[in-house]
Each structure stands twice: as structure tokens, then as C-alpha cells.
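Anyone able to model this chain together with pyridoxal-5'-phosphate?
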Amino acid sequence: MREWEKNIRKVEPYTPGEQPKNKNVVKLNTNENPYSPAPGVKKALENFDVDSLRLYPDPSASALTKTLADYYNLDENQVFVGVGSDDVIAMAFLTFFNSEKPILFPDITYSFYSVWASLFQIPYERPALDENFNLVKEDYYKENGGIIFPNPNAPTSIAVGLDFIEDILIHNQDVVVIVDEAYIDFGGQSARALIDKYENLLVIQTFSKSRSMAGMRIGYAMGNKDLIKALNDVKYSYNSYTMSQLSLALGKEAVLDDEYFKETLQKIITTRENAVKRLEDLGFTCLPSSSNFVFATHKTVPAKKIFNELREAGIFVRYFDAPRIDNYLRITIGTDKQMEVLYQFLEKYRGN
Ligand SMILES: *Cc1c(COP(=O)(O)O)cnc(C)c1O
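re: yes, here you go
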């Protein structure tokens, strides 16, 4: 080994879902929203003052934090924004998880958590979900250096109630508890309702799924002002200008158009409810979904085989070759038309 290689930080990186070059594929593999961003976003882009790009953006990102704070009835100092929730979560790991004790997250969950923990050299443990893929609250009663889990969980799609989250908070008052609400708008109750009661609770959301803006990279955290200040102190120690002029301008418009937001959410929820019925009719079992995807297993045909054959046919879904979930497919809810292409293809397994 060359001498300088000894000092390289070694990490096993996260593997994002495939972004195919071919635009004709039916893309149901990365939980993007099949509908366009709100019309106001397009208008703001058309009216965007390109000359403003000469200047650095507002480091406090206040146009966007203020809009989010107003929308959720919070103070501006209770909101932190970042470059997608991945950036916000990474920043939160760096800010809050500095104990010698292990942080806790489920064995089956967003696979980026273990990557950040390794990157930042944070010890961690992964309590197992039960046989129905539910979180077991007692597993989070032991001493730890912090807790994070998504609600609804990914890739299982299953949500817990606020009573569950409150129980975890009651048993963990000395560490920061993070709820990753990437999919909360599609079902489930936001833990935002608890941030005034529990000052160690941080709730993280994203524009990537429910607000159709994965390509813009906007995420945010909500919590007690001291948590938000700690996040900002770390941010200003790392990169003061995380949010571009364009993210600030377009993100704001997405939040202001609440009617469009609710309308597209409802369309996705309706398509999801229909998908569960159609897939069950085709021989699948779906876990109870509160998100914009379903986690489905076929009664007889192996998931990996279906995944490969779908891919050949230009229909992309997600498959995780991991213990306990290697016979499941994670299928993003697309438009009714896209879903119809999927159902038609799956007819071929009906006789199996
Ligand atoms: C999609 C996702 C994220 C990251 O989303 P961003 O695009 O970075 O905002 C975070 N957590 C979970 C559970 C997700 O599924």
C-alpha cells in the first residue's frame, strides 16, 4: 500500500436507485413523485432573475425557512433547511450523535443511516423489526447515544402512531431522537406536533417525494430552537451557502401552493389503494402502506426473478438483496397509466 493511502477515509458508500438514461422506462424505483412540481414553481423559474446569481445566496435561507415556519405554524428559529433531507440528516448525525454509546436504528430501514454512522465513526446497533416488520418499542429503552428511524419506515412502508413516538421520547429524554418523515404526507401523523413538548425531538422532511422536487434537493428539520441553532452552528462551520438562489425561490413556491400539493397527494393515495387491490389480485401480498410505495411479495414467484424480468421489459422497481427482505419488491406509486403497464406485465405470473 502506498503511504498516503493509509490515511484515506474508507467508507462503503450508499447505493442510490438507478437513474436510467432511457426516458421511456416506467420508472417506479426511487419513490419520486409522478406529477410535476406546483405550477407556481414553473412560473418562478420563468421569472427567475439570472443576474441574481452573481451574488451569494442568503446564508440563513430565510425566505424558505420563513415560508416553512409559517406553513407549519412554527417560529423561524425552529426550522433548518438543507440540500435534500440526506444533507439535513447527515448534518444531524454530525451535530447530535457524538456519544461513545451506540445510536439505534432498525435492522431494516433506510440504508443510508449505517453509511453516515460509518462515515462519522459513530457506533450503532440495529434492533430487529418483528416478524411483521414492525418496530419494537422496548428495543429502544436501553442506553444509547441517540435514535433515528423513518416514519413511515422504508422500505417497509409501515407507519407508527404518535403514541409510539411519544413512548420512545419518554424513555429517551437524554439523547436526541430523530424522526425521518420523508413519506409522512402520504399517511401517518407528523411528530411535528410533539416538538414543543419534547425539546430533544428533531423531525426531518423533504421536498423530494410529496412535493415533486427530488431534482431540486431541498430538505428541512423542525425542532426546538436550541437543536436548530446547533445544526446551524455546524452548518456554518462546514458550508455557509448550502441553498442556492434557485432552491430558495422555487422551494418557497412549492410550499405556497397548498391546493396543488393536497390534490397530487390525494391522487397518489387513491392510486396506492387501488394498487394494493390489483397486486393482491395478481398473487402479491403488500405490507400496509402509508407511503408513496408498496412493499410487495409474490406468493410463488421469487422477487428477484420478477425484478429482472420487469427490468428487461423497461419497468423499473427496487429490489434489495438483503436478509429478510430479499423476496420483496419496493414499487413506487406512479400515475394510473404507469401502474396499468405494470399490472399488464404481471399478468404473466398469474398462473404460477
Ligand atoms: C428519500 C429518502 C430520504 C432522502 O431524501 P432527499 O431526496 O435527500 O430529501 C431520506 N430518508 C428516507 C427514508 C427516504 O426514503
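The pocket of pyridoxal-5'-phosphate is lined by residues 31, 84-86, 110, 150, 154, 180, 182, 206, 208, 214, 219 (CB under 6 Å).
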